[in-house]
Design a protein that fits this description.
The chain is of the alpha+beta class. The chain contains nine helices and four strands. The chain has helices at 12-24, 44-57, 66-81, 93-101, 105-116, 120-138, 143-149, 155-166, 170-176; strands spanning 2-7, 28-33, 36-40, 61-63. A four-stranded antiparallel β-sheet has the order 2-3-1-4, sandwiched between helices. A hairpin with a 2-residue loop joins strand 2 (28-33) and strand 3. Helix 3 crosses helix 5 (105-116), helix 3 packs parallel to helix 6 and helix 6 (120-138) packs across helix 8 (155-166). The longest helix is centred in the C-terminal third of the chain and has 19 residues, at 120-138. The protein starts with a strand and ends in a 12-residue tail after the last helix.
Length: 188
């Protein structure tokens, strides 16, 4: 089995595209999940080239080095956390990430900040703001419900954080009735 870590896989569509294209290219894929591809190979050099080609054509890259892999694991853990609402984490963000990545939080926080030039907490806020935008555009929830789904203490706190990140308040964004969301792989 060959395990490869991949940068910028942020959604189920990414998984589907990579899996289908690797199978089409003749790579014996065992598993594709956010940030990771596992495959069987009788000719690693050939299959590795096929993998690199498929990833490159779709805007992904292979991660090499334990620090880069750890940073991607943190990102994927946070993205997965926001997939199922209401937000379901027990304890603090730091304890959640330590458990998910099996790494001491002070180490992963230091590596993340150094590698990405942003703290884990600030990155998570940016992800949450993108989720807020998505929920506003879905028109299924009011602002209070959105704040509760994303585990904000109250709607005022969400509103202040949204304005600090976007430069507009929640109502202004809703009135735009336009998609001004950032792609999750571009957040930093």
């Amino acid at each position: 089995m060959v395990e490869v870590f991949v940068k910028n896989m942020v959604c189920n569509r990414c998984i589907k595209v990579i899996k289908n294209e690797l199978l089409e290219a003749g790579v014996e894929v065992t598993k594709v999940e956010l940030g990771r591809v596992v495959y069987k190979s009788k000719n690693i050099a050939r299959d590795s080239k096929k993998l690199e080609k498929v990833l490159d054509e779709n805007g992904f890259e292979i991660l090499e080095g334990s620090d880069k892999i750890l940073v991607e694991k943190v990102k994927q853990s946070l993205i997965r956390l926001l997939e199922n609402l209401p937000l379901q984490k027990t304890g603090t963000l730091s304890s959640y990430l330590s458990k998910e990545t099996e790494t001491d939080y002070s180490r992963l926080s230091r590596i993340f900040s150094y590698t990405e030039n942003i703290t884990v907490e600030k990155y998570f806020i940016k992800l949450k703001i993108e989720k807020v935008k998505e929920l506003i555009q879905s028109k299924q929830y009011n602002f209070t419900q959105i704040s509760q789904l994303l585990d904000y203490t109250n709607v005022n706190y969400l509103s202040r954080q949204f304005k600090a990140e976007t430069g507009m308040n929640l109502s202004q964004y809703k009135k735009l009735n336009n998609n001004f969301r950032n792609s999750l792989d571009q957040i930093l």
